[in-house]
Specification:
single chain; alpha+beta; four-stranded antiparallel beta sheet; three-stranded antiparallel beta sheet; 6 helices; about 30% helix; about 15% strand
């Protein structure tokens, strides 16, 4: 389990009187919970310095590093640690990706980009600008393309954003 950390904490929680210490800027500058069980510098165990620029293909797929207060930032940092690159898995052919991308483009999502990370092969749609939306590669490319379109539209709707061309698989909006 990850050590608790936050973009900011109340003054009384800060070291030396409280249990939170601020990580150096190269580790993100967040406030980390420190105890005898975590060490005085838990960010060194769980993270890596962010001083070097992330790989270009990583930024293409997951976007620029989110602001410190953005809830997607922790996931972005975790993905960077496990990044293996944009590539097709051995069980996926370029023709299957092209066919899936035709559907995604028709529904306004742009091309799916397949990459390998902490959880195997995943897919994101950078053209949408919603870098936090992802899918598991096999289902998103081979078996459930239209379902993923509907899931993306539901994601938009849950964020309060318009869905210009609702997919037939999109469930009715809650009242």
């Amino acid at each position: 389990m990850a050590t608790p950390r936050f973009a900011s904490v109340p003054a009384e929680w800060k070291h030396p009187f409280g249990p939170y210490r601020q990580a150096p800027p190269e580790y993100g500058g967040e406030w980390w919970y420190v105890s005898p069980f975590t060490s005085d510098t838990p960010w060194e165990r769980e993270g890596k310095p962010l001083g070097s620029a992330p790989p270009a293909d990583f930024v293409e797929v997951l976007g620029p590093r989110p602001h410190l207060t953005d809830p997607f930032r922790g996931e972005w940092d975790q993905n960077l640690k496990a990044w293996k690159g944009v590539k097709l898995p051995p069980w996926l052919t370029p023709a299957q990706l092209i066919a899936a991308n035709e559907t995604y483009k028709a529904w306004g999502m742009g091309n799916a980009v397949v990459y390998e990370g902490a959880y195997g092969f995943s897919v994101r749609w950078p053209a949408t600008g919603h870098f936090e939306f992802e899918g598991e590669a096999r289902s998103a490319i081979v078996t459930m393309v239209h379902w993923k379109v509907a899931e993306y539209q539901d994601f938009l709707r849950n964020k309060g954003l318009p869905v210009p061309k609702p997919h037939p698989f999109l469930p009715p909006a809650p009242k």
